[in-house]
Amino acid sequence: MSDTPKSAFDPNPPRRNFYGRRHGKTLRHSQKGYLAEDLGDLRPHGISVQENPERKPIDPAAIFGDDRRVWLEVGFGGGEHMVHMAATHPDIGIIGCEPFINGVAMLLGKIRAAGLGNVSVHPGDARDLMDVLPDGGIDRAFLLYPDPWPKARHHRRRFVTPEHLLPLARVLRPGAQFRVATDIPDYVRQALEEVPLAGFDLVRQGADPWDDWISTRYEQKALRVGRTPHYLTFRRHKAQVRES
Predict the structure, then answer these.
(1) 200 in helix, strand or coil?
(2) Active-site residue, selected from the candidate residues 67, 147, 183, 212
(3) What is the model's pTM?
């Protein structure tokens, strides 16, 4: 046990497995255009070893050209929530991570249509971004309808495990919110067990969404098949944190 999460990023991050999908059905011509024309300007630089061989921390606020507060969405799906939050909170910068390229293309189309200038898109694993974020550089994080990995032997692949939560705790400032939404009861169970051990207090839980919530395609799918959405709010603290 230690008083804080592992501090300072690791200049030599470990090789890691990735289990989700990276590609889906063939992209439409317009979506290919979004990727070719828009992604380069919206992608945060300094994440890859090629761009940042010394693995120096990147300043999340500098991505947006000022000292604004920055939020992080892990796995934004089709981007509905991320675009809604960016439009609702124009003074905030939002970085979204999503390795599924079809979802990235969908988000880019929504960003272009909305004319947003406070969004940044990392088309990859959130862990790679967290490797180069400074301690306490993020003011809020979202994990919304993540891959449930329903089989018991796959539960270690869920985001709510120390491999993901300890880096997240490190990059969130003390007092920052971590919001989780899921329709899978066992995911709720695991989140309630694991997230507090990584340095968070449970603030709120239940079936009522947040005041600035927008229903996403994944929530609508859950409702159609009769599953109940569940919303959890955690707050980052300075108490003891379990080491990985």
Answers:
(1) strand
(2) 147
(3) 0.85
Measure the CA–CA gap between 124 and 107, rounded to whole angstroms.
14
6 has pLDDT over 50: no
The confidence score (pLDDT) of residue 3 equals 42
Q: In DSSP terms, which residues pair with 241 in a beta bridge?
A: 2
Q: Is position 125 annotated as part of the catalytic site?
A: no
- Can you give the pLDDT at residue 188? 97
Looking up tokens 């290919």 gives 32
The answer, yes or no, to whether residue 195 has pLDDT greater than 70, is: yes
- Give CA–CA dist 64/41, Å, rounded: 11
Residue boundaries of the structural domains of the chain: 29-236
Helix 80-88 vs helix 101-114: crossing angle, to nearest 10: 30
Type and span of the H or E element at 235 = strand 230-236
Note the pLDDT tens digit of each residue in 66-103. Answer: 999 999 999 998 899 999 999 999 999 999 999 889 98
Q: CB-based contacts of 19: which residues, under 8 Å, 6+ apart?
A: 149, 154, 157
d(C-alpha 203, C-alpha 36), whole Å: 41
What CATH number is given for 29-236 in this structure?
3.40.50.150
